[in-house]
Give the backbone structure.
Amino acid sequence: MKTFHKMLIAGSLLAAGAGLLALPQFAALPDEPTPAFHAEAPKDALPPTMEASIFTDIQTFNAYVVAGRMKKVLYQQPCYCHCDRSQGHGSLLDCFVSRHGSGCDICQKEAFYSYELTHKGVTPARIRESIIKGEWEKVDTAKYAKNYLPPSATPAK
């Protein structure tokens, strides 16, 4: 009977551990505060993003191209890698003003997500709502890893 009880406890612990592993690593908890962002477009000039050409990885290059084109939009978005806590960032834009965005899949996905929605005419406020809901996680970054985007096809927004 003792052996059965121990096996039951071990099985329960194993199942609980597997359940925790199945949860998304960066999923926002319901009571977790939204990362830093700006609710409105900036009134002053924004800092430049890092030059995309310094990155040899195609996806990273494209993330910095996109960020440079959409500075006002990214300024209004939170970043769910929580770099506001770890690096003092004030919005998603800060990830691309520094090298941080080059090594962070979350930052890149959120930038590509913002880019895609902006091209569909979605406002920064609506983009922010869907980022907060986790919709950015569905972005397929494979298409951004194949071909280089032109670095200055459109003026920065």
